[in-house]
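ingest -> validate -> predict -> emit
validate: passed (alphabet ok, no gaps, 458 aa)
predict: started
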Amino acid sequence: MKVLLAVGVWAVVTVAAALAIFLGSSRTLVLATHDAVLQPSLDGYAVLHTGPVLPDVRVPTGSRIGVDVTLGKTDAASVDELLQRYAYLASSPEGQVTKVREALADMLVGALVRGALVGLVPVALWLLVGRRRRAELTGVVGRRRLMAAGLVAALSVALWFEPWEGRDAGVLEGQRWIPLAEFLGPQVPLPDEVRDLEVRGDVTTDQTRRLIESAISTYDQSKTFYRQAALDAAALSLRQPSEDETVVLLVADRHDNIGMDQVARAVGDRGGATVVMDAGDDTSVGRTWETFSLDSLVAAFEGYDELGVAGNHDNGPFVRGYLAEHGWTMLDGTPVRGPAGIRLLGVDDPRSSGLGNWRDETGLSFDEVGSRLADAACDAQDQGHRVSTILVHDAHLGAEALARGCADLVVGGHTHVQAGPTGWSARTARWATPTRRARPAVRRTPSPSAASRGAPPG
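emit:
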């Protein structure tokens, strides 16, 4: 009986403490190209506080748990540019939604752990005091003393919060949430996905109305175009792999175009892909505000085996580090075991950054990095581990490895057009280069297909 009572006290205190900790916690992250602060709530709404210029917006979450998101600094040059970004993000929100959910889940787990520790305090004190001491204390402390202690506690709380202190009414007090359809009027048709959206703030000016109308138009066009493209991709007539084949989807040069992610995933699923290779240039400048693009990539290919390199636009270590933190295997010039057991080699584009040992050296030319990549491939071959495939951003980086006969296939992007695959020849210096976006590549186990073979081993 005492054990059950102790467990009950622990559970009650744990839940109360965890709830208080959870609702009082916050998390800072990069969201929607802003520095943002997340705070959980129990009102069932996702509320976006956009700052002093644009109206706040909210949408139901479909559950009791909600979240308040306060947007901070951004590098957008104008309000128009900012709203266009919001519209594009809203048309493909999966990456941002997943990021918020993961943050809330992490905050909830942390609150539960801390609440469980707080719940142990009264149980531990009860056990440490012991039966005899508890009896002595209850005999010494009378009813009047307990009432006095309670009064002191109540006065302490009152002095802390000072409820009698007056304050000015906030700017938002008295303003109500307005359905977007009511604000824009019947003359503006709304997509079904935003009919539950509500706005709050000073949304009475014609300029604000025009900005929101423009964002809704951009949202609708983006959503319609890419949704239809994904449906068309899912209906493509593609060759299906046999049991001894592994299909790899290659993506490259997304340049923050998150709308294409659902299309690329549809192509991969339709072709039976289980692996995705990312040939880089996922961002425009490799800045932290572009995490929305990386979040979308991570969410789009959940469940796939994920391999990648950074392109020349993914400047600096941020893109590579962020994808690695989210489970991607980022190649660094060292051969690794790839899909279907093949030996895989890759490296970031040297025109943006270098990596590990010689890859840390600055000032290396494109040709010098290509030569060292070829050295790594040939060294692996000398050790009995022939490199089957080289993944780079620009396929020219693998030219020397093919010329030496130390690799079978080079894949990359960079050119933004589809080229190849073609067999390499010393006379024409041409080699296999795949499509810019979403082209399934099939590899037969254990040897490469005839179409992917390069120069014979030298």
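Residues 354-360, 426-458 have pLDDT under 50 and may be disordered.
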